[in-house]
Amino acid sequence: MPDPIEVRKVALHSVTDASEFTALLADGVLEADRVVAVIGKTEGNGGVNDYTRIIADRAFREAIVAHGSRSPEQVKQIPIVWSGGTDGIISPHATIFATTDPASAPASDEPRLTVGFAMSEVLLPEDIGRTAMISKVAAAVTEAMDKAGITDPADVHYVQTKTPLLTIDTIRDAKSRGKDVFTEDTLHSMDVSNGCTALGVAVALGEIEMPSDADVMRDRSLYSSVASCSSGVELDRAQVVVVGNARGIGGRYRIGHGVMTDALDADGIWAAIRDAGLDLPERPHPSDIGGRLVNVFLKCEASSDGAVRGRRNAMLDDSDVHWHRQIKAAVGGVAASVTGDPAVFVSVSAAHQGPDGGGPVAAIIDTGS
Q1: Is 230 a catalytic residue?
Q2: Which of 38, 143, 243, 297, CA to CA, is 20 to 30 A from 82?
Q3: 0.85 exceeded by the pTM?
Q4: Annotated catalytic residue: which of 162, 193, 228, 299?
Q5: What is the pLDDT of residue 108?
Q6: Do the bridges between strand 156-164 and strand 227-232 make them parallel or antiparallel, or are there none, so unpaired?
């Protein structure tokens, strides 16, 4: 049985800042040697050359090394997933997951938060966007579920991944070996990597059957309701964090999920909070949350028909500001209006993650028990 989980959200006061995280470690709220995952937002451009993710990653890993007994090499294995781009009012922050001593958290028959982590086999440049990637990701998701003590896919409410995208160097490498790649547009390869990874999550959880290469980025009826996929230049394999609930472990926290059907679907966010176990009135207000929401985690995507609820928008035609940044800012505002807190995890590029134009939502609450 996995250990109980303690989870906390901290602000980032600059791209190099880990002060609030360090304070939690120094005060004994979290133990550095028990940190199992970090999921956060940094203030870069969210693109291929967003190095704020690398800078923030270094700050948090150095804090874990300084306050614990693990070596830098051991700390490198901890999944720390940074999503770049805090467009609009989204505030840079991190959510930290750490195990805690079971003796301090009596076992409960109620569902309680559990986390599992795995790394896939190496993803070659020619794998990205193809069934080879789907298969490797699916295997890693299954492994992470096992580590989380989850046997029923219905108990998985959030799968956060980080995968490589294509760069000029990796495209050149594939060609040097006589291979081709899905796309030579490096920014588009972010969407491709995310979407293909989401299909791997969906296959592992039994949400869909194994798709074909031709389905990737084309058949948007194929999607996962719990996948949140990011990509970057930091790694060469899929980093998979499975978050769900299990009975028989302790802790105060619980997770649920919902789906936004479009960019304005605040009800999808409220549904995730309810699914996590928070009792809410029929027409809830942020004040009804009562400080018990740890964080929400959303994916978003500009609808391929260029409209929201029948109204045309210009995001997909805008050559000045990429739609990635526009939809992220819009959905971030919707999410913050629900939670009352701009420190929400909103990530763009949601191909095969929720329905076209929408996206999955996960919510973690403090049960208070």
Answers
A1: yes
A2: 143
A3: yes
A4: 162
A5: 85
A6: parallel
